[in-house]
């Protein structure tokens, strides 16, 4: 009995031990760090800023060891960049900004984003810099305004680069004042970045054990064996980011204008109008985010007005030619900034298709004006009728299976002779002997 009791106790111990092993993972599994990765491509827009801010919140709430922002940007609006930099500086999670892949850039506002990271890294064959301020449409600022903007931005970027040494601070200031740029190796040599890494795993292995200072504490990074978790954009963020591509925004604008004009020209279908209205609303949202040049937008709107005017009151294509010129000029300067612009090939393609459509419409309108009416009383002019009675000058004629009152001009006509209709005077036809009207 005693042996049986001992055996049962031993079995119970094994069962409890197995259950405990299943419920409590190994120590390394409990302590394994995770790294969240965001991917930012394109201009720094409000959509991108909200995406990064969401990534910071999620990384902090998930207890991530590090947040990596993989960056490739031509820049963006100063106010958007400043808001994003403030969020990064105040983050309660370490942030590494990694300019990648090869060929990527962190230009203009992207330079500030890189320097705001607790860790700054670049992939081989990438660039950083050219952070001089420009106007909302890419134009040079007036001298006084330019000096004020450069002073303000230079102070901000020097503050961000201060912990990286004097050479980094001097270069950062020149990036603002003289649009200085640097390759990855040059940036590493002067201390603007911490390292060059060919990939995110290589970056994590390199910075393992490094200390970074957050706003409220100092953290030692444990990233060598960390699990990588991608945090992609949500569907809504992806949609908004897609439509803020200058080429997509441009297509939406043109599609919207065409749809509304088609609906106005052919009312009753509603489909073209609905599609046009939706496209126009979405397009205007994208234009607002991208700081559109309203001169360019005005020229495009003027082009469509000229196209429509040429259809309503044809001028043998003069207004259409003016519309094409206005359309192309407006398209070229619609996003003529250092950060984004419409593809020249797309502009040419859309201009050709749009102008061809309106040229066809103008030609159809001219043809309609020149063609002889085929219905109503006007449609009878030129038709050949046969007299039923003497026309001297009034009588009746037979035309299209019906009898008509008629008045002859150019001499009397006997019954059975053919006449040609030259005019419709109310419900009376004015006719002439066929030989006379033929000579005329």
Topology:
Layout: H1 2-23, H2 27-31, E1 34-41, H3 46-61, E2 66-72, H4 78-89, E3 95-99, E4 105-107, H5 109-116, E5 119-122, E6 127-129, H6 143-161, H7 166-177, E7 181-183, H8 184-189, E8 195-196, H9 200-207, E9 211-213, E10 218-220, E11 227-230, H10 235-243, H11 246-265, H12 271-289, H13 294-312, H14 318-333, H15 344-370, E12 384-387, E13 394-399, E14 402-408, E15 418-425, E16 428-433, H16 434-439
Parallel strand pairs: 1-2, 1-11, 2-3, 3-5, 4-6, 5-8, 14-16
Antiparallel strand pairs: 6-7, 9-10, 12-13, 12-15, 13-14, 15-16
Helix pairs in contact: 3-4, 4-5, 6-7, 11-12, 13-14, 13-15, 14-15
Q: Which features would summarize this protein structure in a list?
A:
17% strand, 440 residues, 16 strands, OB fold (Dihydrolipoamide Acetyltransferase, E2P), 3 domains, 5-stranded mixed β-barrel, rod-shaped, alpha/beta, 2-enoyl-CoA Hydratase, Chain A, domain 1
> Structural class, please?
alpha/beta
Q: Any low-confidence stretches, pLDDT <50, length ≥5?
A: 24-30, 135-141, 436-440
Binned strand content: 15-25%
| Percent helix | 40-55%
Number of strand segments: 16
Largest sheet: 6 strands, parallel
Radius of gyration: 38 Å
| CATH topology heading of the largest domain | 2-enoyl-CoA Hydratase, Chain A, domain 1
Class of the largest domain, according to the CATH hierarchy? Answer: Alpha Beta
CATH homologous superfamily designation of the largest domain: 2-enoyl-CoA Hydratase, Chain A, domain 1
Average residue-wise pLDDT: 81
CATH level-two architecture of the largest domain: Alpha-Beta Complex
The rounded distance between the terminal residues' Cα atoms is 137 Å
The coarse overall form would be rod-shaped
Strand arrangement in the largest pleated sheet? 8-5-3-2-1-11
Domains (count)? 3
Q: Give me the number of helical elements.
A: 16
